[in-house]
From TrEMBL:
Alphabetized SUPFAM superfamilies for the sequence: Spectrin repeat (SSF46966)
Entry keyword set: Coiled coil
Organism: Bucorvus abyssinicus (Northern ground-hornbill)
Protein name listed in UniProt: UTRO protein
Phylogenetic classification of the source organism: Eukaryota, Metazoa, Chordata, Craniata, Vertebrata
InterPro entries: Spectrin/alpha-actinin (IPR018159), Spectrin_repeat (IPR002017)
Coiled-coil positions: 3-64, 208-242
Pfam families: Spectrin
Amino acid sequence: EKAVNLKKDLAEMQEWMTQAEEEYLEKDFEYKSPEELENAVEEMKRAKEDVLQKEVRVKILKDNIKMLAAKVPSSGQDLATELNVVLENYQLLCNRIRGKCHTLEEVWSCWIELLQYLDLETAWLNNLEERVQMTENLPEKLDAVNDALESLESVLRHPADNRTQIRELGQTLIDGGILDDIISEKLEAFNARYEELSHLAVSRQIVLEQQLQTMRETDHMLQVLQENLAELDRQLTSYLTDRVDAFQMPQEAQ
């Protein structure tokens, strides 16, 4: 009777493993939204816990069959053979579910990381847009134009590392058919805004550089003119002090 019950327990265990494999490993999952992906991750975590909890039952079966084999070798031998098959299948099931759980957790982590990089770069784009707007309607002063140019250039020196991460993470998920529509939409919107603002910022940078160069040249010309006028004023004052007749002066002084 004990052998019959153990045989029944082994059959039930094998049946449970077959159902678990069908439910957790053979279903075709489609992750078209973050909610679906997150639910799949949580479901696979529960599956891993469920399978691992059966380890106690498997150990009890193993111990009972060993005890029976010691008492009744003939009955125990057949059960031991069936037990080995169950143990092998159980270990395989555990490994596969662990693997799938790990993969889904990695995918979810990849999605969260992508969102974090997008948030960082979006904040940078907002800052860049603000700096570009600050370059409009500047007062015609050298310092104001120079400060605006330096401020814009400091933002444009932003490294491209985050954008590289966004591209690689997004492509990895899209290649796996995971959240591909959502990610493609997000990346398209981000890239379009990045290109637009980058071109606008570079154009404003060029305009400011030209404006700054013109203002510096004008300031230099005014400085030279002021120096020339000061020298002429000094000469004229000297002539007047010495009561020199106008016709005795050089032609330019006349």
